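Record type: monomer structure entry
Structure origin: computed from sequence
Chain ID: A
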Amino acid sequence: MERRGAPSSTSREHKFLNRALQNVALMPPSPSPLPQMTQYLSRKPASGGKNDDTTSPSISNFVVGSGGTAMRIIVPLQGIVQGRGGLVLGSVIPCALFYLFQFYLRRKRPSSSPSPTPSPSSGDLHALPVIPRTESRNLISPRAGSVPAPLSSRAAVVNKSDACRLAAGHQRYLNDPYHPISNPDGVIQLGLVENQLSLDLVRDWLERNFKALLLEEGWRDLGLGRMETCFQFDGLLDLKMAIADFMGQVLQGYVSFSPSKMILTSGAASAFETLCLCLADPGNAILVPSPYDPGFDRDLKWRTGVDLIPVPCRSTDNFNISIAALERAYNQAKKRGVKVRAVLISNPSNPVGNLLRRDALYDLLEFTTEKNIHLISDELYVGSVHGDKTFMSVAEILDTEDFDKCRVHIIYRLSENLSLPGFHVGVIYSLNYNVLAAAAKFTRYSSISILTQRVLVLMLSDKRFISEFLQLIGTRVKNMHHLFVHGLKSLYVNCANGSGGLTCWVDMSKFLRSYSEKGELEMWEKLLDIAKINTTPGSSCHCIEPGWFQFSFKSLSESDIDVVMKRIRRVTLNPKVHN
């Protein structure tokens, strides 16, 4: 029985509801009611669980913190279920309805990805393919389909050049190389200028001496103590002195070379590039009489950024250098705003084989002096003269005439003249101190191995071997050139009148389907596909007259020449080839 004057339960609830609604209008909602609800439920009743006014403030605070929306549910339920029961139901029911609604939406949402395949049993695991770790990582990574990182324009140019016809022909040879016994129908390589005519002489010397070089105490130059130590990148002084003596022997004593004016590099390609880095800046140009060695486009341009300007020579003058053509090319470059830094010549010329006369060298020195540019003389094949003419180095004129010696630079390939193409030894000879100083620093990136230098020092110091070698190699070059030219004449194929080098500059223009570069390339493909001979077309040498080809004979034997001529006959005498 209620006490008199005590407020009824209904009146207390109405008072509490009015106070709560007023607080809702004045206070912002809290992020979540759960912490306050948990705190409230964990409290023990202060008066034995009776719902008196002492609990109203706590309930009010909780209801206010839960926001206006929650009040619409919690308060009526509290009015139905007295005490804590209404509060609990008012909090749990909205949460349950919310999660049921989310579950309903997820069930009705269309599937955007294929359903997962059931997991295989342990007995079927061995039948599943194993995905490499890197591949599986790419499958789950969002970066797997990203665009590849870009390369430099330099790399793009180099990669594009690998797809040229020279690389394609050489690859055909590598895939199917000719051998007289094991592969007589293979591709014969006549496009690679690599001296193998005296390889047997060098091999015999190595067989006789290499064991002694490593084992006998008398040969101390190859001791490990001397090979371990640091050395100058531009070459050992001992090797420079030996090369100076060897070059003097090749030129029959007409010129003496100073070892202090030499820079040694790992091959002629490095020598050309190093010298080009010293003489020209990116965007500058070098005049080169054409046809010229196609390797120049690689060795002088790839990393230096220097351009080569071909200066065309005509067959009517046996492709000799014309000063008028050089003057015209220089003036045209000047009009385009291109700075010409040098003239590059080959003596003997490659691929034609012309020897530059004294008057031609005089004209070149006067031209470069007038234009205040450099002269680079490529004398790689000085030891391969096979005609009646005498070779003359530009160094001989510098010793006897009053020209500016600082603007003349000579490139020499020791490994080519010694039939050691795998040793890769190039020589820069210059009287320009600044060029020598800069080139010596650049050789850090192209130095010769110490073992190669030590072996060459001992080989060049063997005077008896060098004397016999020079005599035999001269005889072999003359003989091979004569046999090759005679074989071509039997097929009514003409050659340029060359006196040096290890190639024949062959005129096949009368066998072209059309007198154009396209017709020349068709003939090159026929030589490669039908005759199975890889050659160098004249367009790769920047020859402006279609139909000329470079045939290198220095990797052939005398018996191989007959095979080559029979194969060329397939193209020149077969009427079906020209249809």
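Annotation 1: Residues 463-490 form the longest helix (28 residues).
Annotation 2: The radius of gyration is 45 Å.
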